[in-house]
Amino acid sequence: xxxxxxxxxxxxxxxxxxxxxxxxxxxxxxxxxxxxxxxxxxxxxxxxxxxxxxxxxxxxxxxxxxxxxxxxxxxxxxxxxxxxxxxxxxxxxxxxxxxxxxxxxxxxxxxxxxxxxxxxxx
Length: 122
Description:
With 122 residues, the chain is mostly beta strands. The protein has strands at residues 2-6, 9-12, 17-24, 32-38, 45-51, 57-59, 67-72, 77-82, 91-98, 111-112, 116-121.
């Protein structure tokens, strides 16, 4: 299984950015896909997750109403649309996949992609 995250960059506070995670190497129908992030000096934290089979989603409280996770079946790709970005959203964002079901625990996800840097300037 390979997960390739892209779309990070530098954006001003209040701006928007869309991350993509291209998945390959398996059938993901029974998987949950998620985005985590890790800021310097902080632990990796759950941002949002989605079940591939029915697109049910879950979000961290800190991003609810600002971020939207979605998936494109034919492209085997998961997206994270981020709006009203804050300086506090600055982090390396990681895509993850796992068969254990949707949830915020890092241990639920078996596969991880390399991160993509998101920097929000004031």
